[in-house]
Amino acid sequence: MAASTKKIEEALAHIREAEKSLKTSLLKWKPDYDFAADEYNAAATCYKTAKQYTQCRECLMKAVENYKLNRSFFSAGKCLEQAGLISKELGDMESIYKFCERAACMYQEHGIPDTAALSLDKGAKMIDLHLPEKALLMYEHAVDIVMTEDRPRQAAEYQSKVSRINVKLQKYDAATDAIRREISYHQAGENNPAIGRLTVALVLVQLARGDTVAAEKAFREWGSYCENEEVQTLEMLIQAYDEEDGDMAQRALHHPFIRHMDVEYSKLARSLPVPKCSQDTKKPGVTDTYPPYTSTSGADVDSVTKGVGGTSISGGDDDLDLC
């Protein structure tokens, strides 16, 4: 208790110094914003040590405002990130989103987009269980930022999280678009094995939408990137849904590599409604052998990625003043 009290007194001393530095007089015409910001930041550290999180966050926000007035955008961004962490301690998940978005804005002003995207990634990880819709917006924003620097590999990493959250939220139309965009980034980065795995994911999402034709089309478009095991399983799966063969569908969906996919896709596979008809009641005239796919991967990477860097985050808080 004594140590906590001492830290609080130390914080108050820093606040007094900050307020003093902001005052003007006949001999001091301009407030010292940089010194005030440093003092508020020091006060926030003392409050954090004393576990006075509300006062800590208040001091951090005062530091941010003074850093902004002095155009010290990097320092302002660091304080906003700290405010996000303190908000987590307070259980205020909504504020994490706001603070991390503002931090990203500060880092972009400072000219370090990679740090801006990383700040969004950190914030999204903190709220994805509680506010998945907000986390989705943050990952989409991170993708936009890194694509302004033409970094498709890094964009693919963030885009994969966009795809998985859409699947988690059962927004399958959005998930389809997200996966296709993720594939385009892997194409640009020449990461072919990842495209094969995403082909399986795309087929599963199309089946979840109840569109077996789109599932077959996705397989034919991207199947050339799949491993032999993936090809055989997808052929079996699509044939099972086409013939309404529930037993075959179950065998395909319980294949080990599908069960060991990313958690959201694995859950999706387990929850897919399978045809109720058995092998004995398959559609007349349908052969047992599924026609081999042909590689028609005609995705135009430029058309998908062109202009991405210039886009902005959508669907955010209308009242949110990012900067």
Your description of this structure?
It is a peripheral membrane protein. Belongs to the SNAP family. This is Gamma-soluble NSF attachment protein. By secondary structure, the protein is mostly helical. The protein has a domain at 184-295: Tetratricopeptide repeat domain (Serine Threonine Protein Phosphatase 5, Tetratricopeptide repeat). Helix content is 70%, strand content 0%. The protein is built from 16 helices and no strands. The protein has helices at 2-22, 33-49, 53-69, 73-90, 93-110, 113-127, 132-147, 152-168, 172-188, 192-208, 212-222, 228-243, 246-253, 256-259, 263-271, 301-305. Helix 3 (53-69) runs antiparallel to helix 4 and helix 10 (192-208) runs antiparallel to helix 11 (212-222). It is elongated, with a radius of gyration of 26 Å. It starts with a helix and ends in an 18-residue tail after the last helix. Residues 278-320 have low confidence and may be disordered.
N to C succession of SSEs: HHHHHHHHHHHHHHHH
Low-confidence stretches: 278-320
- Assign the CATH class of the domain at 184-295: Mainly Alpha
Mean pLDDT: 86
In terms of topology, how is this protein built?
Elements (H helix, E strand, L loop, with lengths): L1 H21 L10 H17 L3 H17 L3 H18 L2 H18 L2 H15 L4 H16 L4 H17 L3 H17 L3 H17 L3 H11 L5 H16 L2 H8 L2 H4 L3 H9 L29 H5 L18
Subcellular location: Membrane
Family: Belongs to the SNAP family.
InterPro entries: NSF_attach, TPR-like_helical_dom_sf
